[in-house]
Amino acid sequence: MAEQFVELLGMAPTSIDGGELKFVRGSLCTTLSIWKDRYDRSLFGWMVHTDHCGLGDRMDGFGGVGIRIDHHSPSGDAGPADIPPAACYPWPAGSAPLASAVSADVTYYGPPSLRFVRDSHDLGLLLLADTHVHRDGVWSFAPANNEPSRLAKAILLARQCGDQDLERAAVAKLRNRGEKPVARRPDYLFRQAVADWSRQYAKATGIDLSDLAKLKRKRPQYPDIP
Questions:
Q1: Residues forming a β-bridge with 21
Q2: CA distances (Å), 11 to each of 41, 69, 74, 76, 201, in order?
Q3: Which of 211, 32, 27, 65 is CA-nearest to residue 149?
Q4: CA distances from 156 to 43, 44, 179 (A)
Q5: Which of 32, 135, 136, 209 is the most exposed place for a label (fewest CB within 10 A)?
Q6: pLDDT bucket at 94, cuts 50 / 70 / 90
Q7: Which residues pair with 43 in a beta bridge?
Q8: Gap between the Cα atoms of 114 and 112, Å rounded
Q9: Whose CA is closest to 48, among 113, 120, 121?
Q10: Where do the H-state alpha helices sit in the chain?
Q11: Predicted pLDDT at 90
């Protein structure tokens, strides 16, 4: 099936491993994954995820530093961020070709999904987005419940890349949201959640996020980016 996807996409992947097609472009690694429904093996779906290559291995346990791109309007503002979209295509029997609906969707949604993230700076801005971002008929998946972790990842990415503009944008959002509670957790402030995620990310990557970890204090001092 992967070979049929390649033909429909009109784009040669860097590598193919089973149902995963990887496309490397600069510092970005985009993966198109074909997967079977866990409850109904007669159905399958496909999804695209773009990560920063330089942080991928170290942050693998946290889902990488990246964003998922959906080819249907996403839901899940309060649901777990790691749940894939619903499988909605019939798995072809034997060597049968893909159904026309599958071919049409892959041809239409595939290329803009693979090109959705423009560069590492754009990836950081997508991580900072307040909600799902719509471009060229596809969407980035940015549920409200993982905003603190996404913001911490954006700052991690900014420091990995030396992108001060991205870091300024992240700190501005952090200052704006810091004293507000995390979605559905009135006793847990946004800055405290960012601090908790930052400790874990710093341990995994060796990148200094100690100033963010201090946001857990009662009297926090927010980062000051020149």
A1: 16, 32
A2: 28, 17, 25, 30, 34
A3: 65
A4: 37, 34, 21
A5: 136
A6: confident
A7: 90
A8: 5
A9: 113
A10: 2-9, 100-114, 120-128, 147-161, 164-177, 190-205, 210-213
A11: 87
Average pLDDT over residues 217-224: 87
In sequence order, what are the residues at sequence separation of 6 or more whose Cβ sits closer than 8 angstroms to the Cβ of residue 156?
55, 59, 65, 198, 201, 205, 207, 209
Q: What gap in Å lies between CA 168 and CA 155, rounded to an integer?
A: 9
pLDDT digit string, tens, across residues 29-47:
999 999 888 888 888 989 9
6 CB neighbour count, 10 Å cutoff? 17
Residue identified by tokens 């074909």 is: 34
Q: Any residues with CB less than 8 A from the CB of 125 and at least 6 apart, and which? A: 154, 166, 169
Tokens of 49: 């995820």
SS3 of residue 96 by DSSP: coil
| Residue 82, SS3 per DSSP | coil
Strand, coil or helix: 25: strand
Quote the strand ranges of the chain, DSSP E: 15-17, 20-25, 28-36, 43-52, 66-70, 89-90, 134-135, 138-140, 181-182, 185-189
As to burial, measured by CB atoms within 10 angstroms (0-12 exposed, 13-18 middle, 19+ buried), residue 26 is: exposed
What is the model's pTM? 0.91
